[in-house]
Write a structure and sequence with these properties.
By secondary structure, the protein is α/β, with parallel strands linked by helices. The protein is built from 14 helices and 12 strands. The model has no long low-confidence stretch (mean pLDDT 86).
């Protein structure tokens, strides 16, 4: 298989559907379309055509031709918008498969060609992958920004500033070789470099795409029989945990992903925290303590004074329909009746928004953060040195790190993994 092959695939959802889109991309795309229809396809002008193979009418479809390089893949591309029945789609795909100049596309191959042909960069491709897997409104918004080039534009601006700063260093190096100058870099140059470093470090403080994907980890913790599982079931909207009046019913972690108010959460119910001679319960308690350490937010259902030391704790008095109101708790709720739960959820959403991207800001992947860390480290080294050669090399390393984000350098080892996340036809 070669990147020069002309490929085809169903690029919409699996039939049956109202419409199905079959895409062909490559040098032979227009010729392949011509073997199914005698109609002449003009660039970017949709046309209703009859698709035929071996004399049989396959479908009356809408056909579009997008000449490269101004197409989604950067190559000549043809799309057939078919009636979305299985038989129609299978017949058209079978006809294309019989063409020796075509082959079926692999997962993510259309997007990979768009990247290879400069139609999108690597960060934008990652945004498309995020968009395909988005399940909440927050995930969709962040993915749209990344796919639309919001972060890539920032990287390009940083790179342009780096090139400007590097040019000043190279000019001094050239002059110093000729013995014409003895001066170092001006104070403004160092100020500009510090400002660039600050901008990159600010980006590093943004929420991670992994948190946006996996959800805010909310751990319900407290002593046995405090109402944790009942409240857990109320928050996730189903009977995910067994509830019983016998203390110690929950012995292991129970996790349930849920979207609330368009934000992703991972709710975690835990074993009651107490000393026990039961070996199995002891394991559950140890796991509960470990979950507390990894939590983004803790709902503590024990005595407010016993709340764990954690950066974000909500002290909850549960079972308020049975027990007296506790004025020292942040919220008094009943998982059984739902009393007070809406106010608790509103507070959880407010705290969660502080840990997720703000409007107009894309979440960054671990790969992006690693590259930005490398760039910031190189800039710090450049700003701390008086040696022009060290400064020039540090700036080169910073540019190389930024280039890894957009795919200009050093990313071959992860391309297969990235584009393998896409479906066939994307």
């Amino acid at each position: 298989m070669s990147d020069a092959d002309t490929i085809f695939a169903l690029s919409s959802g699996q039939p049956p559907a109202a419409i199905a889109i079959v895409r062909i991309s490559g040098a032979e795309a227009l010729a392949a379309a011509g073997e199914l229809t005698s109609a002449k396809l003009e660039p970017r002008r949709p046309r209703v055509v009859a698709l035929r193979a071996d004399g049989d009418l396959l479908d009356n479809a809408l056909a579009l031709f997008f000449p490269g390089p101004n197409s989604s893949t950067g190559e000549d591309t043809v799309e057939f918008h078919l009636h979305g029945g299985r038989a129609v789609v299978n017949a058209v795909l079978a006809a294309l498969a019989r063409n020796p100049k075509l082959r079926a596309a692999e997962a993510g191959e259309f997007t990979r060609r768009a990247f290879a042909n400069g139609r999108i960069d690597l960060a934008e491709a990652e945004g498309l992958a995020d968009l395909l897997s988005a399940e909440t409104e927050a995930q969709r918004r962040s993915a749209m920004l990344l796919a639309g080039g919001s972060f890539s534009r920032e990287v390009h601006e940083w790179t342009a500033e780096l090139l400007r700063l590097a040019a000043g260093v190279e000019a001094l190096l050239d002059f110093s070789d000729e013995g014409d100058v003895d001066e170092g870099l001006p104070a403004q140059w160092h100020a500009d470099l510090a400002r660039l470093e600050s901008g990159i470090e600010a980006a590093l403080r943004r929420p991670s795409a992994e948190r946006l994907r996996d959800g805010i980890r909310v751990v319900l913790a407290g002593p046995p029989n405090a109402g944790k599982s009942t409240l857990f079931n109320r928050l996730v909207g189903r009977e995910a945990a067994i509830t019983h009046e016998i203390a110690g019913t929950t012995r292991d972690l129970i996790e349930a992903p849920v979207a609330i108010g368009g934000l992703p959460f991972l709710m975690i119910d835990t074993a009651g925290l107490r000393s026990s001679a039961d070996a199995v319960e002891t394991i559950g308690v140890d796991r509960a303590r470990a979950a507390l350490d990894a939590a983004d937010l803790v709902l503590w259902l024990g005595s407010p004074g016993d709340a764990p030391r954690h950066h974000d704790v909500i002290r909850v008095r549960s079972r308020c329909d049975e027990l007296a109101i506790d004025s020292t708790a942040d919220f008094n709720v009943s998982g059984r009746t739902g009393e007070g739960v809406d106010a608790l959820v509103g507070n959880m959403l407010s705290r969660a928004r502080d840990t997720l991207p703000v409007a107009g800001e894309a979440a960054l992947h671990a790969r992006h953060r690693d590259a930005l860390q490398d760039a910031a480290s190189a800039l710090r080294e450049a700003n701390a040195s008086d040696d022009l050669l060290i400064i020039a090399e540090s700036l080169r390393l910073a540019r190389a790190a930024l280039d890894r984000i957009t795919g200009r350098a050093g990313v071959e080892d992860m391309l297969d993994t990235l584009f393998g996340r896409f479906c066939i036809g994307k």
